[in-house]
Write a structure and sequence with these properties.
Pfam family, one: HpcH_HpaI
Order of helices and strands: EHEHEHEHEHHEHHEHEHHEEH
Cofactor: Mg(2+)
Keywords: Lyase, Magnesium, Metal-binding
Protein name: Citrate lyase subunit beta/citryl-CoA lyase
Number of domains: 2
Distance between the termini: 15 Å
Organism: Amycolatopsis echigonensis
CATH superfamily of the largest domain: Phosphoenolpyruvate-binding domains
Radius of gyration: 20 Å
Length: 297
């Protein structure tokens, strides 16, 4: 998956809001058919989202376009997928998943629709949102259920699906979800998914809190944030972009090691720190992340 620093939710039935999403600078938009669409508007939202994908794809917009369909248990997901899988769609942001078998079934449906629409096999990705107790209890199996899985997130947010399922009381410090957020990162990395995303920060006025939320999750290993408001996008983009200082430090570290290696050493004192090939690989990852972000800008 591309290094999305920010993914912004846009209500699917409000076509003009997608343009506001573009103006926010988000790396990806999530056109929502689920919770931000009233029950009475579900049917009319599908063609609106399809038309939005067609329009933005024709315009060649920079952000990738994802869709959050309704959950499988809602009975609405099949119609959602029929409507939105088309050229220009990067993938599906799956809510309220329960187990790996569900992912396998969705993969089969998506494969059929890809073939019908003339899309390359496997081109539609899946991001799994862990919002049920069952999914979090089996997060490793779900992460590895299909090669389509591109990223994972879950276990945050006050008074919503996760909190209700698990019964915890949300705090900004996040100690009540630290284990789960850490486990999701571990499941992602174990499945070869190197870009787990955090989300969401619900207080749209508390920008300092949004920044701290990004920083806390970055320290855990998350590499981007799912945003519910455009005001959070710039914060996420800043926090999850390696600083010029960090990139410069990494490049100097790599150069110092390569010079020592050429002289026959497998370790070197770099600015007072003992470094070896393991540190070089970490530095190369930082440089690669920065270059990938720049390439997608």
């Amino acid at each position: 998956m591309k290094p999305y620093r920010s993914m912004l939710f846009v209500p699917g039935h409000k076509a003009s809001w997608a343009d506001k999403g573009l103006a926010s600078g988000a790396d990806a938009l999530i056109l929502d058919l689920e919770d931000s669409v009233p029950a009475a508007n579900k049917d009319e939202a599908r063609p609106v989202v399809a038309e939005t994908i067609d329009r933005l794809h024709a315009q060649g917009v920079r952000p990738d376009l994802w869709v959050r369909p309704n959950a499988s248990v809602s009975g609405l997901q099949g119609a959602d997928l029929e409507a939105v899988i088309r050229p220009g769609l990067a993938g599906l942001f799956l809510p309220k998943v329960f187990d790996a078998e569900e992912l396998v079934r969705i993969d089969a449906v998506v494969s059929h629709l890809e073939a019908r629409e003339g899309l390359p096999a496997g081109s539609i990705g899946l991001i799994v949102s862990y919002e049920t107790a069952a999914s979090m209890a089996h997060c490793e199996e779900i992460a590895a259920a299909t090669p389509r899985v591109s990223s994972l997130l879950g276990a945050t947010g006050p008074s919503a699906d996760v909190g209700r399922e698990l019964g915890f009381e949300f705090t900004p410090a996040g100690l009540e979800t630290l284990y789960l957020r850490s486990r999701i990162v571990l499941a992602a990395r174990a499945a070869g998914l190197h870009h787990p995303v955090a989300g969401v920060w619900q207080d749209i006025r508390d920008l300092d809190g949004a920044r701290q939320f990004c920083l806390d999750n970055k320290q855990l290993g998350y590499r981007g944030m799912v945003c519910i408001h455009p005001s959070h996008v710039a914060i996420a983009n800043e926090v999850f972009t390696p600083t010029p200082e960090a990139v410069d430090h990494s490049r100097r570290l790599i150069d110092a090691f390569r010079e020592a290696e050429a002289a026959g050493s497998a370790a070197v004192d770099f600015e007072g720190q003992h470094i070896d090939i393991a540190h070089v690989k970490t530095a190369e990852g930082i440089v690669a992340q920065a270059e990938a972000i720049a390439a997608n800008a």
